[in-house]
Amino acid sequence: MRKGVRVWLVGAGPGDPELLTLKAARLLASADVVVHDHLVAPEILARLPRRATRVYAGKQRGRHTMTQGEINRLLISLARQGKRIVRLKGGDPFIFGRGGEEALALARAGIAFGVVPGITAATGVAAAVGIPLTHRAIAQACVLVTGSRRKGDADLDWEGLARAGQTIVVYMGLAGLERVSRELVAHGLSPRTPAAIIQQGTTASQRVVAGTLAGLPRLAAAAHLRAPTLIVIGKVVRLRRVLGRFVPAPPPNPARGPRS
Ligand code: SAH
After folding, report:
1. CATH number for the domain including 201?
2. Which residues contact residue 26 at a Cβ distance below 8 angstroms, ignoring those fewer than 6 apart?
3. Contact predicate 61/175, CB 8 Å
């Protein structure tokens, strides 16, 4: 590890271990402790070096094993013990991963840290299923939003989201899909806008349910999808009909069952 840096906030990508960056793989190989959360795919955990101690920090929807404050304090105390720590997070640490909160806590504690970007679910999963998130003629913008709402959270800017020529990617959106669909239609998006929800993209458990914005909640409920799932809304989703036939299947994972 680079001299001085005690904690690396590392993005693990969406699941396929080959989507780890070389830098992530190198840091994992020399870590003393790997603190990971639920989102990090078993395919990736299976490849961690045996010498590293693993700490599961939880973060499954509705089942927080450690609070964010506890995770922050753990990282700080491990760093003070002089350990080489990798804080491994699904996707990219700075996109809906609370990596920003952890970075701030480390900064406030005066602990040197580094951030290794990862392939975020939007780009990784879209590529795996044949959906270009932008296309010159179809979508000139792509917006990433969280569908998860806690009491007191500001509502999404539905009007802004319903703008033409824009692809919407919703993270943590399964539980709120019905509402997302209803609000976007109420704010002007056609109910026939193509939309898809992808379960456990880039892994052997990948599944895609595609339809229209208005029809997707019913299709998703009938499919009994498992987390994590990503929702993509916009005309680009239609391109999957052609491109989806050419994308290779995700790598098999015979050693492990799907994530619960
Ligand atoms: N930092 C992560 C996102 C954390 S929020 C990133 O950059 O990807 C967790 C959400 O990410 C999940 O609820 C889901 O919406 C999305 N997600 C992450 N990995 C995914 C995958 N392999 N397939 C589908 N969605 C995924």
Report:
1. 3.30.950.10
2. none
3. yes
We report the CATH number of the domain holding residue 89 as 3.40.1010.10
Do 188 and 235 sit in the same domain of this protein?
yes
Helix (H) or strand (E) holding 34: strand 33-36
Q: Would residue 77 count as lying in a domain?
A: yes
Mutation probe of ligand 1 site: the residue of 96, 150, 232 with most atoms within 8 A of C-beta? 96
Exposed / middle / buried, residue 63 (Cβ in 10 Å: 0-12, 13-18, 19+): exposed
Ligand 1, pocket residues at CB < 6 Å:
14-15, 39, 89-92, 95-97, 120-121, 125, 171-172, 198, 200-202, 228-230
pTM of the complete model? 0.94
Tell me which residue range forms the domain holding 46: 7-119
Please tell me whether residues 126 and 85 are part of one structural domain: no
Dihedral over Cα of 130, 15, 113, 172: its sign: positive
Residue at token pair 């973060």? 59
What is the DSSP code (8-state) at residue 19? Answer: G
Annotated active-site residue 59? The verdict is: yes
Q: What are phi and psi of 210, to 5 degrees?
A: -125, 150
Q: Tens of pLDDT along 26-80?
A: 999 999 999 999 899 888 998 898 999 999 998 665 666 789 999 999 999 999 9
256, part of any domain: no
Same domain, 94 and 202: no
Across 65-97, b (16+ Cβ under 10 Å) vs e yields: ebeeeebbebbbebbeeeebbbbbbbbbbbbbb
In the predicted model, what is the mean pLDDT of residues 3-14? Answer: 92
How many angstroms is it from 3 CA to the middle of ligand 1?
31
